[in-house]
Design brief:
The chain is α+β, with helices and mostly antiparallel strands. The chain has a single domain, classed as q2cbj1_9rhob like domain (Jelly Rolls). 17% of the residues lie in helices and 28% in strands. An 8-stranded antiparallel beta sheet has the order 1-2-11-7-14-5-4-3. It is globular. It starts with a helix and ends with a helix. The structure holds 2-oxoglutaric acid and fe (ii) ion (FE2). 2-oxoglutaric acid binds next to strand 12 and strand 14.
Amino acid sequence: TELEQKPIIPDGYECQHPPYKVLMVSKSPLVIYIKDFITPPERDHLLKLSKDTFTRSGVTGRQSHNSVRTSQSTTVPRDDIVRCIESRALAFQGYDVPASHLEPLQLVKYGPSERYHYHTDWFTSDHDTHQGGNRVSSFFAYVHVLNGTTGGGTNFPRLEAPADGRWCDDDIVDCDETWDNGITFKPVEGNAIYWENLAVDGRGDERTLHAGLPVVSGGKVGMNIWTRERALGKGIRGEDL
Ligand SMILES: O=C(O)CCC(=O)C(=O)O
Ligand SMILES: [Fe+2]
């Protein structure tokens, strides 16, 4: 029945935030790596919530060519666990952003050869910023990575790769990547990358250009949490603002 297929939130569930760890990647643009940002039960829940709802991903603005994003995506319906993740994303940003500035969480799924070409998360067309303004910040979290996945990293070609070998040892950064390719984060379940998209003058920062590199084998599911400059209306955000 329909009831049995709904993902279950355990009785007495209370939102608790995991003791995640942060590592600064870049001060300008601000880029922060977050370990253990999404807990295993949350990851499970997100996958169940979105099961069978993925469709071919869209792109906006000048980038609207279908081969740039071959992944599938879906919007996650909001429930208590999703609200918990949203509140964590807001707390991370210093509590001063209201929930109404968050876009609904978006999951993106990639199988072999699927990718998302170089793009910025900030919008280049007024049409997209009309409601809510531009995307101030992005979290990209790895929600699910199949065992033995190769490829599928997240590459920022204009950021400088960190020099310290500990980034490689912990399997966070792909250190086989040549130095002039910038920085490539390997998909690690539960971890997230946070960055700020806009310069102080509010203009999009070109240095935040990035791509979801093609998955070679295996697969990954990622999650975008985008924060806007201003409040979004019910049309995008849904009933509870
Ligand atoms: O798949 C990735 O690693 C990045 C995805 C991405 O940048 C996006 O969905 O905006
Ligand atoms: Fe992106």
